[in-house]
Amino acid sequence: MVKPKKHLGQHFLTDKNIAEKIVGCLKKNEPIVCEIGPGTGILTTPLLQKEHIKELHLIEIDEESVEYLQSHYSDPRITIHQADFLKIPLQNITKSPFSIIGNFPYNIGSQIFFKVLEHRNQIPEVVGMIQKEVAERLAAGPGSKTYGILSVLLQTWYHIEYCFTVNEQVFFPPPKVKSGVIRLVRNQTQQIDCDEKLYFKVVKTAFNQRRKTLRNALKPLAVNGLPDHPLLSQRAEQLSIEEFVILTNLVAQTISC
Ligand code: SAH
Questions:
Q1: Whole-model pTM above 0.90?
Q2: In this structure, are 141 and 201 located in the same domain?
Q3: What is residue 182's three-state secondary structure?
Q4: If you take atom 5 of ligand 1, which residue's CA is the nearest one?
Q5: What's the CA-to-centroid distance between 5 and ligand 1, angstroms?
Q6: What DSSP character marks residue 8?
Q7: 90 and 163 co-located in one domain
């Protein structure tokens, strides 16, 4: 047994059927899979039953869990990396495409997804368990109150599906909130039709003042004032991905002129 450590977000899943169900959400049959935060391996075991997996990289920050994994798992497909997923350069793991799976430590859920975005062309599929509320937010579409920065940025490059809810009681120790499993699949988008850096900035700025109309929320970015455009009288949570691209080009015009 590994004693759960709160600061590492350790809530160990205890239900093997749910572990199998999570692993079953990986559908793209990528030969290389990376598991974030395997802990004592409840997801690792069903992952090893998948024959299409040729390399399984376990990235675990906790020394005690790493020792546990080393003494319980000897499958030659496994490589254990004792590392912080947020810090480890992904080329140290593999230069090929790979899928990600994990019962993610909740305190760094958003940061994991920002890292996925940075490396989106190497990551065709992600299956992750996070707080239910966050999972719902990431999968939300325009018009929903929970639609936010990460929903827009992730949905620009991924199709997102909310898979199922997991109750508190199947973890040790139980977390305070329910969990949700989501699945991300890389879409066809390569280049967006606007400056990508500015797109990130516009999305973040627009949602930072989400109650304001976009004309007001984006004032700090638009040095020379914004033109007349119907999108600017809406609020961030109403806009689709395509409309955020249009918005970014409106802001770009005011910067270049
Ligand atoms: N997959 C296991 C454990 C989930 S708890 C299960 O379902 O039972 C989250 C796990 O992530 C813990 O094992 C914790 O040690 C690990 N972890 C926390 N922060 C991490 C980080 N930055 N990088 C890698 N692993 C991390």
A1: yes
A2: no
A3: strand
A4: 10
A5: 10
A6: G
A7: yes
